[in-house]
Automatic annotation (TrEMBL):
Ligates lysine onto the cytidine present at position 34 of the AUA codon-specific tRNA(Ile) that contains the anticodon CAU, in an ATP-dependent manner. Cytidine is converted to lysidine, thus changing the amino acid specificity of the tRNA from methionine to isoleucine. Its EC number is 6.3.4.19. Residues 325-392 form the tRNA(Ile)-lysidine synthase substrate-binding domain. Belongs to the tRNA(Ile)-lysidine synthase family. Residues 66-90 are annotated as: Disordered. It catalyses: cytidine(34) in tRNA(Ile2) + L-lysine + ATP = lysidine(34) in tRNA(Ile2) + AMP + diphosphate + H(+). Its main location: cytoplasm. GO terms for cellular component: cytoplasm. The lineage of its organism: Bacteria, Bacillati, Actinomycetota, Actinomycetes, Kitasatosporales. This is tRNA(Ile)-lysidine synthase. It comes from Streptomyces adustus. The N-terminal region contains the highly conserved SGGXDS motif, predicted to be a P-loop motif involved in ATP binding.
Length: 397
């Protein structure tokens, strides 16, 4: 008898992503080998399949991770200096490492189980990282428990990383920033080819709705990418799967999962959306809403990419010999392309991308489309935009 349908679905999703990773790795390494004249298959698949599941190793020795400062075995601080992920020539045939970022919740536990099952068959070494945000009492113990569960699945290396969450951008954004910084550092430390994240189609639908409510254009409607981060290091195999499938897969495999109390805390916007907003929308519009929102994300991403490419090409044609933006030429462009050029110019001048909202760009745009002699526009990051002699000057004041 085959696996439970939910287990089959999560494994297939992970297998597809691992295949993509291997193809990309082989392409990169073959390119490098061509350049150096070396030969041979860079990453032979199936090398671990011969020996079965990788050993469920005990805690990593502190000596393996220079700079480790945390006392508990297997726990490391985010202060550990990053090592280069670049492979030395002699390491090229070592199995590539793929890590799962695991909170202990149903989505990422399902992901970890599928990675543990699929990776050895493809000659990939599967590991895991859990981040302790330190935001709840006992979070360190929970992180240790996640480490144990990941090891029980056969993942190796596995570690918990403690982070300090700041305040910038609000609690959710600050926790996310700290988490990704820790995951980046872990990927560098282990020379990981990729980190898998457990975002599901439901998370994607929520992200699209949050973008829609911000009113900031199709880029924010495009949600999360299946591949993102430096060198495409982050992968989201479950973006086409619903949350229920992940949960069912955990139940079918008797995997204990941890339900983050933040996920049901109405103090958090995403939690309200998950438990009140989306159910209300489904009630009003029908069951297919989540799927339709996820599809909107993909379509918006394609449109946003096309417009970004158009804006990149158009930008050179609207600058004069000194590099200043010419208002008449900007005026002739479609608004979506023009606003992209203006946004990029503001960021280049020093405006922080995260603080630059649609309303800022609209105001700058009015210097082009609604010119009546208005004064300089102040933008975040002490950047000032003003119109001077038919040119748009955007610089830090
Ligand atoms: N503390 C953490 N440590 C490691 N990875 C995390 C942590 N929190 C979140 N992640 C990663 O980010 C993904 C999305 O997390 P988020 O909390 O937004 O969603 P979720 O639906 O609650 O996921 P999960 O059920 O896996 O907790 C997770 O699936 C996991 O891959």
């Amino acid at each position: 008898m085959g696996p439970h349908p939910a287990v089959a679905a999560i494994r297939l999703a992970v297998r597809r992503v691992l295949h993509d990773i291997l193809i990309e790795l082989n392409r990169t390494t073959s390119g490098a080998d061509d350049a150096t004249g070396a030969t041979g298959t860079p990453f032979a698949t199936g090398t671990l399949a011969a020996t079965g599941t990788p050993s469920a190793a005990g805690p990593l020795a502190a000596a393996e991770v220079p700079g480790s400062v945390d006392q508990a075995p297997g726990r490391y601080s985010d202060q550990v200096p990053a090592q280069s992920a670049a492979r030395a020539p002699h390491e090229r045939t070592a199995p590539p490492v793929v890590l799962v970022a695991c909170s202990g919740g149903a989505d990422s536990m399902a992901l970890a189980s599928a990675l543990a099952f699929e990776a050895p068959k493809l000659g990939i070494r599967a590991g895991g990282v859990t981040v302790d945000h330190g935001l709840q009492p006992g979070s360190d113990l929970r992180a240790d428990e996640v480490v144990l569960r990941l090891r029980e699945l056969g993942l190796d290396p596995v570690e918990a990383v403690a982070v300090t969450v700041g305040r910038e951008g609000g609690p959710e954004a600050a926790a996310r920033d700290a988490r990704y910084a820790a995951l980046d550092a872990a990927a560098d430390r282990h020379g990981a080819a990729a980190i898998l994240l457990g975002h599901t189609r439901d998370d994607q639908a929520e992200t699209v709705l949050l973008g829609l409510a911000r009113g900031s254009g199709i880029r924010s409607l495009s949600g999360m990418a299946a591949v993102s981060g430096a060198d495409g290091r982050y992968r989201r195999p479950f973006l086409q799967l619903d949350r229920q499938t992940a949960r069912k897969a955990c139940m079918a495999q008797s995997l204990p999962v941890w339900d983050d109390p933040h996920n049901v805390d109405p103090a958090y916007t995403r939690s309200r959306l998950r438990h009140e907003g989306l159910p209300a929308l489904e009630k009003a519009l029908g069951k297919g809403v989540v799927e339709a929102l996820a599809r909107t994300a993909q379509l918006s991403r394609d449109d946003a990419d096309a417009l970004d490419a158009w804006a990149s090409q158009a930008e050179a044609s609207v600058r004069d010999a000194t590099g200043l933006l010419e208002c008449a030429k900007l005026y002739a462009l479609p608004p979506a392309v023009r606003r992209r050029i203006l946004r990029r110019a503001a960021i280049e001048a020093g405006a922080p991308a995260g603080s630059l909202f649609a309303r800022h760009i609209e105001e700058v745009d009015r210097l082009i489309t609604g010119w009546r002699g208005q004064g300089a526009i102040n933008l975040p990051g002490r950047v000032v935009a003003q119109r001077q002699g038919g040119r748009l000057v955007i610089r830090q004041g």
